[in-house]
Specification:
This protein is of the alpha+beta class and 313 residues long. The chain folds into three domains: 84 residues, Uridine Diphospho-n-acetylenolpyruvylglucosamine Reductase, domain 2 (2-Layer Sandwich); 111 residues, Uridine Diphospho-n-acetylenolpyruvylglucosamine Reductase, domain 3 (2-Layer Sandwich); 83 residues, Alpha-Beta Complex (Uridine Diphospho-n-acetylenolpyruvylglucosamine Reductase, domain 1), CATH 3.90.78.10. The strands form six sheets. A five-stranded antiparallel β-sheet has the order 6-7-13-11-12, covered by helices on one side. It has a four-stranded mixed β-sheet with strand order 1-2-5-3. A hairpin with a 2-residue loop joins strand 6 and strand 7. The two termini are 30 Å apart. Bound molecules: flavin-adenine dinucleotide.
Length: 313
C-alpha cells in the first residue's frame, strides 16, 4: 500500500508504522480524534491522529517513526494535567494508557509508564507495601507522575522512585536514570527539560500492614471527595504553590470562588481548581487563569504559575 502524506504534520512513514502495528493488533489509532474525550478536563478540539500503542516496543517504534519521518507528536499519559487547545493538535498524540503492566517483587514495584497511579497503590496495598498511599486517587499515570513528581498528603514520587527507563527519541536508545539523577523538586523532574519518553519505573516501598495501608488510602480518598470538586471535569490544581503561599487560599481570599469566564469556573469547593461546567473552551480556561493571576498579583504582589500544561494546536 502506498501511503500519502496525511498533512504537513503526519508523514507517510508514520502513518504506515501506525497502520502496520494496528494490523498486528499492537496499536489502535483514530483520525480527527476529539481530544475532549481523551482528557479529564473534557476540553479540546480534534487531533489529526490519536494513537494508543499496545506494548512498549510499539510505543518506541511509533516515537522513532515520528522522529525519523518528521511527524509532529506529543506524549500523553492519562491527560489529567493537560489543557488541550480548542483547535486540537496538528500531528499525533501518542497515549500510553494501554501500557499498564505492574510487577510486584519483594519490596519493589516495576511498572510500565501508562499504569494508573490508583492501580499501583492498590497493587502495593495487596502486597502489604506502604509508600504509595498518597497516590491513591490521583487520576494520572506512572509516566506522568514521574515527569512532574506528582504528590499529595505529604508523599511524592521522589520518595519512592529508585529508577526509570526512558527512550531518547532522536537516537532510539533506551537508558535509565537512578533516583538521584532525576533532579526532583516541587512538581519538577529532569524529564521536564528533555524530550525523553519514560517507558517504565521501579518504585521501592516498605513492608506495612495491609489494613493500615487501606485505611490510609481510604482516608486520603475521603479527603479528596470532601475537599475537591471531583464531580466536575478539571485537570486538578490549576496553579503551582507559590513559594510561601497556598495558592488556593490566595484565590479564595481574593473572593474569586465561583468566578466564571464562559463555561470555566473557579470551583466553589476548592479555589485551586478550575472546573468545566459543561461547555468550557480552552480559551475560557486561559482567560480565567489570566484573570486570576492578575488579581492575585494586584492584591498580594505574588506571581502564580500554571501547573496544568497547555498543548496544541
Ligand atoms: C481531580 C484531579 C486531582 C489531581 N490531584 C493531584 C494531586 O493530588 N497531586 C498531583 O501531583 N497531581 C494531581 N493531579 C494532576 C495529575 O493527575 C498529575 O499531575 C498526574 O501525575 C499527571 O499524569 P498523567 O498521566 O495524566 O499525565 P498527562 O497529563 O498525560 O501529561 C502531563 C505531562 O507529562 C508528560 N508525560 C506523560 N507521560 C509521559 C511519559 N511516559 N514520558 C514522558 N513524558 C510523559 C506529558 O508529555 C505532559 O507534559 C490531579 C488531577 C485531577 C484531574
Amino acid at each position: 500500500m502506498i501511503y500519502k502524506t496525511m498533512n504537513d504534520y503526519i508523514k507517510a512513514d508514520f502513518f504506515a508504522a501506525a497502520d502496520s502495528l494496528k494490523a498486528e493488533g499492537r496499536a489502535e489509532y483514530e483520525l480527527s480524534a476529539p481530544l475532549s474525550r481523551c482528557c479529564t478536563f473534557r476540553i479540546g478540539g480534534p487531533a489529526d491522529m490519536a494513537v494508543w500503542p499496545g506494548d512498549i516496543e510499539a510505543l518506541s517504534a511509533l516515537v522513532c517513526a515520528a522522529e525519523n519521518s518528521g511527524t509532529r507528536y506529543f506524549i500523553c499519559g492519562s491527560a489529567s494535567n493537560i489543557l488541550f487547545s480548542d483547535e486540537g493538535f496538528r500531528g499525533a498524540i501518542i497515549f500510553t494508557t494501554k501500557l499498564k503492566k505492574i510487577c510486584v517483587s519483594g519490596n519493589t514495584i516495576h511498572a510500565e509508564c501508562g499504569a494508573p497511579l490508583s492501580l499501583l497503590a492498590m497493587a502495593a496495598q495487596r502486597a502489604s507495601l506502604s509508600g504509595l498511599e498518597f497516590a491513591y486517587g490521583i487520576p494520572g499515570s506512572l509516566g506522568g507522575a514521574v515527569f512532574m513528581n506528582a504528590g499529595a498528603y505529604g508523599g511524592e514520587m521522589s520518595q519512592i522512585l529508585i529508577s526509570s527507563e526512558y527512550l531518547s527519541p532522536k537516537s532510539g536508545k533506551i537508558s535509565s536514570l537512578s533516583a538521584a539523577e532525576h533532579d526532583f523538586g516541587y512538581r519538577h523532574s529532569l524529564y521536564m527539560e528533555r524530550d525523553d519518553i519514560i517507558l517504565s519505573a521501579v518504585l521501592e516501598l516498605v513492608p506495612g500492614d495491609g489494613d493500615e495501608i487501606q485505611r490510609k488510602m481510604d482516608e486520603n480518598m475521603d479527603a479528596r471527595r470532601s475537599k475537591q470538586p471531583l464531580e466536575s471535569p478539571s485537570a486538578g490544581s490549576m496553579f503551582k504553590r507559590a513559594p510561601g503561599h497556598f495558592t488556593s487560599a490566595l484565590i479564595d481570599g481574593a473572593g474569586l470562588k465561583g468566578y466564571k469566564v464562559g463555561g470555566a469556573e473557579v470551583s466553589s469547593k476548592h479555589a485551586g481548581f478550575v472546573i468545566n461546567t459543561g461547555d468550557a473552551t480552552a480559551a475560557d480556561v486561559i482567560a480565567l487563569t489570566e484573570h486570576i493571576s492578575s488579581v492575585i498579583f494586584e492584591k498580594y504582589g505574588v506571581e502564580i504559575e500554571r501547573e496544568v500544561r497547555t498543548v496544541g494546536p
